[in-house]
Fold this protein.
Amino acid sequence: MHIPEYAHALIRSALPSVPTSRHVGAVDCCLCDRPFEDRLPVALGPTPESGLFGCRPCLHRLVTRARRARDAALVRDAEQALTEAADWRPARERHLARLDRVRQAAEAVAELADGDRTEPLQVAWLLVSLESAYTWIPDAPEPPAAAADDATELKEERFRLDLAMITAREAVADRLTYHLINEAQPAEPEMCEEFECPEDCSGRHDTTHIDCGPDEVFEDLLRHGVRLERPEPEPPSPRLTALLEGTGTEEKRTPLPGIEEGAPAVLAHFGIDADDTDVLVSAAAVGLVADAWREGPLDGIHAADDGPSDGEIFAQGVDLYRWARAALLAARDDGPEELLAFVAIASDPDLPWAGGSPFTLRAVSASASVAEVGRHVDDRVWFTTEVIREQGWRAALLHRALSAASRAPHQFGMPGWPDTVRTAMERLAPLDRSDAPEALTDLAAVEAALLEAPDRLGVATLDWLAARGLLDQ
């Protein structure tokens, strides 16, 4: 008899504190104290042959009670989560709106301070009122457990506000500093001719930038009684030294030296013709998806209880391959920035996945892993954009194609994919498909879909195939 885990605690509480020899000897049920007679005893441990034994009616009764208690607790928890979410959403929106308004105010103050249309005294009062608005911002509300991901959004918005405040304070300080310096300077009408001033010039020539050098501040502080040791002067950089000595320009370093000479032979070993641009782009797209998306933080999300299934991973990988291929082709003519389209799709937390799946990264409880997916995708794609800038489009394709050859040689988009499909169909044909999704009825259509667009089969079909190892690569 299977005893579910949720019933263990209730059954343990019902066990006798001092069992009798008849309980231990499997003569009487330790729960109802009645003889087993012709009923089969169920071992309660610690081993199947020793310990305490219970009868099936007692255990069935306790399991039913535990299940009802668990279901009632789940309903209570769900109702509580709904109530907390209903209370949380307005509080969250109010706090985000306040942060956003104050941030916009800080940006406006910085813009006014940088210009010359607002008087310095008015700029000072703007900063005072801005600081008051910033001080009156309440602490961020604590989200309920069901909305724990929202805490990250609140922190990010607060961080944006803090950056805007720093910019505003710097702009106001700079404006008021030079205002005071200029007000203290006497008029110099004799300089008007040199400065080619208009005829109505008052003789005051304001300064907006003064460079005192790296050590003047230590001299000024010394006059005020503050003695600080000066930092050692920095040696000139090798590039500056080379320029001063006339030794020529610094040799340009490349991210992947020698890749265009060595990669084609390696790719040929895996059946990839590096001279066939179409084949090379496809392999590079597979490698970009493998490096930037499939490998790394996604493994933790896949393993999570609420993570995507094998079929969902497969379908989304096929769709991202198409995006990666299109982005790589666009990068050839329009520059490496076109790869940002792939980054946006691969790391979008709210985008439903391919194959008709409702799964989104936002739905995963492991919020830290979701954030890591975005950073991981961005880092890997950034390296590809740098290779394109430094060594050219073909070098970047060769690099990612090498990844595909070593990590996903039989993936959709690779020359080895048709062989993978042929093997899968040979293994699928004799299988019992009575419980299979309807899409697997027509094997010819299944084979065509696997070759052209596997995600067209749908997540349920891909899960069925993956569960039987037919998509193993």
